């Protein structure tokens, strides 16, 4: 008789640290594939928005929010903000010594002066939105930055003393050949970043990309490009520690590890998501509403969900499966391991990890997990 799922012991919940996410919703141009809460016509409310974020942070700190082990400023385009406004938000936070503080950057915005201001404010890591190094592919993605500015941005960050540089790449755009993708990877590797994130293009409802089926990515093409990324990045000394993320030893993103380990994190700015001990919540989506609610002294809560123990246990395994260390032996039925999962997972000590083919089919593999 099968033991009821709820009666099985739950895995211990790790304590990977406390993270803070700050959302910046301003962009110069909206990419065709983007479904994030971003706007190109709201620069006039930047200062009020930053005031609201700082007020919101101050209230949470007064209510006992822990100092942050990691901070991630994302968007949108954080570098769209004048540097002094971004620094004001960072200054409002309480962080532990040696905290990892990351800011997402558009390469066209980055110069050494900006990076020096960031370093003085405690920024230790930047994530540069490269996507592609091939102009025609960038155009197909609806991106407007100059790929040659990526090299200048990396050099500026290094010269200013930024400790770690991540390059964000996207593959599978319409018209991108395997050789185009190789060019992007090889040019990215030559810049010697500490970390590379490479994501297959996904189609999000409501985007211009979703409406244009002729530009939708092909699964076989995505698989070939993933394999090429893994080959080239591994050969260059980058370890794959999560399905879409490669890093030099010791340069794994601490902030994302908190997410992937079901850690707790605070959320500031519009459309930001937070988590605490099984309670997930998100703030209201539009910047104007966020500002108005904070200015009125209200909690800018947009919604929440409470995860029960069974759901948390399953999610813990699903997240762990995506990581380099995998899941405990026994997380899958023996019959599955010798049947439908053969070639998709493999033993590593007392753990089971995804093979490269398994990484490509991770969602299907996760359906076989047994919390």
Helix and strand arrangement:
Elements (H helix, E strand, L loop, with lengths): L17 E7 L21 H17 L5 E8 L7 H10 L2 E11 L6 H9 L4 E7 L3 H7 L6 H13 L3 E8 L6 H13 L4 E6 L7 H4 L7 H17 L3 E4 L2 E3 L6 H7 L3 E5 L4 E4 L2 E5 L3 H9 L5 E6 L2 H13 L5 E2 L5 H4 L7 E4 L2 E4 L1 H5 L1 H5 L5
Strand segment count: 15
Structural class: alpha/beta
Query: What proportion strand?
Result: 15-25%
Overall geometry comes to globular
The CATH topology name of the largest domain reads TIM Barrel
Mean pLDDT: 93
Which architecture name of the largest domain does CATH use?
Alpha-Beta Barrel
Tell me the domain tally: 2
Helix content: 25-40%
Q: Would you write up a description of this structure?
A:
This protein is of the alpha/beta class and 371 residues long. It has two domains: 243 residues, TIM Barrel; 57 residues, no CATH class. Helix content is 36%, strand content 23%. It contains 14 helices and 15 strands. It has a nine-stranded mixed beta sheet, sandwiched between helices. Strands 10-11-12 form a three-stranded antiparallel beta sheet, with no helix packed on it. A hairpin with a 2-residue loop joins strand 7 and strand 8.
């Amino acid at each position: 008789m099968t033991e009821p799922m709820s009666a099985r012991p739950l895995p211990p919940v790790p304590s990977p640290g406390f993270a803070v996410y700050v959302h910046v919703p301003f962009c110069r141009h909206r990419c065709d594939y983007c479904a994030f809460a971003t706007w190109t016509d709201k620069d006039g409310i930047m200062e009020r928005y930053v005031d609201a974020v700082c007020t919101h942070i101050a209230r949470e700190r007064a209510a006992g929010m822990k100092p942050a082990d990691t901070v991630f400023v994302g968007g949108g385009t954080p570098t769209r903000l004048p540097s002094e406004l971004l620094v004001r938000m960072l200054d409002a936070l309480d962080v532990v010594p040696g905290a990892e503080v990351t800011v997402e950057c558009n390469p066209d915005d980055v110069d050494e002066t900006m990076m020096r201001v960031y370093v003085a404010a405690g920024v230790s890591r930047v994530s540069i939105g490269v996507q592609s190094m091939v102009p025609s592919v960038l155009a197909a993605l609806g991106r407007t930055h100059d790929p040659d500015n990526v090299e200048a941005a990396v050099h500026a960050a290094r010269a200013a003393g930024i400790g770690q540089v991540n390059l964000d790449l996207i593959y599978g755009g319409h018209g991108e050949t395997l050789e185009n993708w190789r060019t992007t990877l090889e040019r990215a590797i030559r810049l010697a970043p500490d970390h590379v994130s490479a994501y297959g293009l996904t189609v999000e409802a409501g985007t211009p990309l979703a409406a244009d089926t002729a530009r939708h990515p092909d699964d076989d093409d995505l698989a070939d490009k993933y394999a090429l990324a893994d080959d080239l990045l591994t050969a260059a000394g980058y370890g794959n520690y999560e399905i879409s993320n490669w890093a030099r030893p010791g340069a794994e993103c601490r902030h994302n590890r908190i997410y992937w380990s079901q850690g707790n994190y605070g959320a500031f700015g519009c459309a930001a998501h937070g988590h605490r001990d099984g309670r997930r919540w998100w703030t209201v989506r539009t910047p104007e509403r966020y500002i108005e609610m904070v200015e009125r002294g209200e909690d800018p809560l947009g919604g929440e969900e409470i995860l029960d123990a069974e759901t948390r246990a399953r999610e813990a395994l699903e997240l762990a499966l995506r990581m380099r260390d995998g899941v405990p032996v026994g997380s899958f039925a023996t019959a599955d391991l010798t049947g439908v999962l053969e070639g998709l997972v493999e033993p590593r000590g007392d753990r089971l990890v995804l093979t490269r083919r398994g990484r490509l089919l991770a969602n299907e593999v996760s359906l076989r997990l047994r919390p």
